[in-house]
Amino acid sequence: MNIFLADDDEDDRIFFSDALKxxxxxxxxxxxxxxxxxxxxxxxxxxxxxxxxxxxxMPMMDGFECLEDIRAVDKFKTxxxxxxxxxxxxxxxxxxxxxxxxxxxxxxxxxNQLKTMLYKCLSPIRDQNFNEEQNFLIDE
Amino acid sequence: MITNLQREMPKFLQNGxxxxxxxxxxxxxxxxxxxxENWSLSLKFAISSMLKTAFPNFIFxxxxxxxxxxxxxxxxxxxxxxxxxxxxxxxxxxWPEIWDTIEPLLSQVWNTGxxxxxxxxxxxxxxxxxxxNIYWTFSYSALMDDDEKIGGILTTCTETxxxxxxxxxxxxxxxxxRFAINAAELGTWxxxxxxxKFKANDRLKGWFGIDAKDNIELSMATDAIAPKDKNRVxxxxxxxxxxxxxxxxxxxxxxxxxxxxxxxIVHVLGRAWxxxxxxxxxxxxxxQDVTAQVKVAEDLKNVNALVKKEEExxxxxxxxxxxxxxxxxxxxxxxxxxxxTYLEIIDKSRAEIIDxxxxxxxxxxxxxxxxxxxxxxxxxxxxxxxxxxxxxxRKNLVQDAYFNLTVQPITNDNxxxxxxxxxxxxxxxxxxxxxxxxxxxxxxxxxxMQSPIAMAIFRGKxxxxxxxxDRMLNHFWHRxxxxxxxxxxxxxxxxxxxxxxxxxxxxxVQTGTPVRDKESKVIVVTNKGxxxxxxxxxxxxxTEVDGTISGVIITVTDVTDRYFAKQKLTNFxxxxxxxxxxxxxxxRSTNEKLKNSVKKLEEANTELESFAYISSxxxxxxxxxxxxxxxxxxxxxxxxxxxxxxxxxxxxSDSAGRxxxxxxxxLAFSRTEDDKSKLEPTDLNTILHQALENLSNQxxxxxxxxxxxxxxxxxxxxxxxxxxxxxxxxxxxxFSADEPQPIIEVTTEMRVGKTLGKMDLNDNTYYHKIxxxxxxxxxxxxxxxxxxxxxxxxxxxxxxxxxxxxxxxxKKIMQNHEGAVKASxxxxxxxTFTIYLPQMENKx
Lengths: 140, 844
Prior knowledge:
Chain A is 41% helix and 18% strand. In chain A, α1 (10-22) packs across α5 and α2 (35-42) runs parallel beside α3 (63-72). Chain A is built from 5 helices and 6 strands; from the N terminus they run βαβαβαβαβαβ. Chain B folds into 6 domains: 2-162, PAS domain (Beta-Lactamase); 184-289, PAS domain (Beta-Lactamase, 2-Layer Sandwich), CATH 3.30.450.20; 321-432, Beta-Lactamase (2-Layer Sandwich); 451-558, Beta-Lactamase (2-Layer Sandwich), CATH 3.30.450.20; 590-675, Helix Hairpins; 679-838, 2-Layer Sandwich (Heat Shock Protein 90), CATH 3.30.565. Chain B starts with a helix and ends in a 6-residue tail after the last strand.
C-alpha cells in the first residue's frame, strides 16, 4: 500500500513509520515535512498514493489549504485523505469532513494505540471495503 | 101534509133520490100545478129523467118557469139558501137576484126552441147565507109538453166556481210568479231530458252569453260553467235526474259569460219531474244572480274577521296593559271585567272576584275608594285622584299602597250610570322611593350642617350660596347664615375675584371633574379685616338625573398650622437633603469603583478561560510526545530497568498521566460553553449507567455501595451530563472515608422554581432535583460556594487525587443547561450535591 504523510513533526513521522511497519499490512510510506512538498509530489506525474495522511498545523501550507487543493484536482478526488492531528474543536472537525476529508485520526498518546488506530483506519481502504458507517473521528 | 105522507108516491118520483122524496112530500094541493099524479105526462117524464141523472139538472116548467132540480144540483144551492123551498116556485120568485140575467136566456129558448151554451158564466146568487159569486157552465134546452109545444126548459149545468176560481188563482199565481221572477231578477230554465232541449228566459241567456234563440242545447249552458265548478254541477244534475232527494236541485256555482267573459255566481233551484215509468221528463227551475250577495257575504266575512281580530287585539291590549282596569256593575259595584294588571294589584284571581261586589272582595277599601265610586255614580262625572293612598290587603298583609286613579262612568246617552270603569296605576314603589330620597336628602343636609369639616353648596351659574354649615360660617366666613344664603358667592366675597377659586368653580360646572388642592392660600375679608388661610379643599360637581351639573359642593379644611409647621420642616429637610446628596455622591463613586472591580474580575475570568484553553491545547502536544516516548520506552526498555529505575519511571509515567487529566479537564471546562445549541432529550438513566461504567475501577477499589433510582429524561447535552455524573460520583468516591463502607445514594424529585430560593432559576419552571449523597468526609461549612471555583482544593493533594476543576465544570455545565448545582455538608458525615435540571417541555 502506497502511503503519503505530510507532518512537520519529525518525531510523529518516525512514530508513524515505525507503527506502520509493525502492523500486519504491506505498505511503503513517503513522508513530507509540509504541504507544499506533498502537493509537488502529487502533481509530479508519478504513481499516486492509495491514501494520504495530513497533519493540520504545518508551516507554509497547513492541512486545510492542502486538503482544499487536493480536492480541487479531479484525479485526486478519489484518494482517501486522512487528517492526522491533535484534538480540535468539533466545528473544525465538521468543517474538515465537509471539505472532503475521509477520516480524522487523532494523534494518540500511546504507541500501541497508534498502531491499533492505523490498522483500523487502513485495513478497510486496503480491502476496498470502505464503509461510510464508520465514525469520521477516530480517537483513543 | 099527513095526507101526502099517507098516499102512495107516484111512480115517476120513485127512485128519485132525496129530491124525489121532497117533491113527493111537498103539499101541492093549493099549487097551480096541482097534485103530481095529475101533472102532464111530459112534465112527469122530464122530472123522472132529471131525478135519475147524476148530472146536475134544473127544470123551469111552464110559462112562469116553475123550479125543479135533482140531487146532483142540490149542493149548488148551499146551506141556508133556496133549498128546498124553491121547488115548484116561479123562477122569478125563486131567483130574483139573477132573474134579469137568466130570464132573457130562458125566454129566448122558450121562443126559439134552440138550446143555449154558457161556459163559466158568473151567476152570483144567494146561498150559504149570502150572495156568492158562482160560476156555471150550463145549457138551456127546451122541453116539450104533451101538446108538443114548449112546456119547460131543462137546465143542464155544472158549477164551475172552483175550477174558475182555481184558474183565476192560477193565472194570478202565474202573474205573481212572472212578476216575482222579474222583480227578483230571476232566470228561468226548463230542460227536457228526452230531447236534450234547454229553454231559458232572456235574462238567463244574457248571463250565459247565449243568443236569445228559443231552443238551445244543454251543453251550451254547461260550457259556461266555471271549470272549477263543472264536475260539481254535472254531478248535481245527474243526481236530480236520477230522482235523488225527490229530484230537487239546489246549487250555487260560478259561470263565465261566453261573450263578455264576465263572471257570475248563480244560485240555481229546480226540480226534476218524473212520469209513471220513473223517467224524468222535465227538469226546470230558477236561477238567481248572487254574485253581489256572495261578494258582499265574503266582504262581510272579511270585515267581521277583521273586526273580531281588532276586538281581540284590543281586548288583549286592555288585558295586558300595565295599568289596572276594572269595570264595576250595579250599585253594589260588582266586578264585571278586570284585566290581569288589576288582578295583580289586588292580589286576587279572576274567579275570586268576578260577579262579586267590591265590599265582599276588598272590604279594606270601603272607606277610601268606594266613596269615590259613589261620587262618580252620583254625579255621572269622572274623578281622578293623584297619589291616592289606599290600604290594600296583599299577601295577607294590609299595607298602604299609592295609586293614580281614574274612575269613569260608563253611560249610554243620558241614562243613569250603570257601570263605572276604574283605571288604577300603582305608584307605591315610586312614592316609597321618593320618601326614602327625601329622607336621604334630609339626612344629607343634616350631615353637612353638623359636619366638623366646613362645607357649602353653591347653585347655578352665578354660584348662589344654597347652604353653608356652621364650621364654614364661623371659622372661614365670619358671617351669619342669613347674610349669605341666596346671595351670589362673588357678592358676599368680592375679594375672590382676584383669586383662582372662581375659575376653578366654573371649571367644575363645565367639565364635571372635581377639583382639589392642598395647602392653598385663600384670603377672606370680614368686618374684622383680612384673614389668610391655608386650606385643603375639594370641589365636587352636583349632578342632576339628566347629567347636567347644577352646582358645586365644597369642603374646606384649615391646614394653616400644618402649613407653617411643614414650612419649618422643609427648611430642615433642605439641609438634610444636601447632606444626603454628598453621601450619595460618595456611595456612587464607591459603586463605580466596585463596578470596575467586577468588570476587571470578569475580564480576568475570561482571560483565565482563554488561557486555560490555549495553555491546555498547547500543553497537550508536548505531553502527548512524552507519553508516546514513555510508552515506547516501556515497550522496548521496560524489562531492563533496575528496581530504582522502574520506580522513577513509574513516577514519570504517573505524573504525565495526571498532567493529561488536568489538561483534558481544563479543555473540557473551557469548552463547555460552546455547545449550548445541541440540547437533546437525554435519558439520565443511560447517562448514569455510562458514568458508573467509567468509574467501575474506583467503585471496586473503594467497595462503595451505590443506591440509584429511576431518573428522568431531560433536554441536555449527553456528554456534558455524563461529565456531571462522572465528576459528582467520582468526587463522592474520592472523598469517601475509610470507615464505614461508602454509600452513595442518587435520589430525584420535582420542584417548582419559586420554592428553591436564591439559585437564579425561573419561578414558574418545574425542575428535576437530583441529589447525590455520600457518607464521606464532607467539607467545612461556609465552603458551599467556594468549592465550585476553579482550582479550589479543600483537601491535601496526597490524601485525595484531583485537579480541582471537576466541580467548576459541573457548575458551568449546569449553567449551560439553565439549571443549577448546590452543595451541602456536615463535616465528617458526608456531603450532598444537588443538581437542578428544567423539566422537558411536553412535545405533542
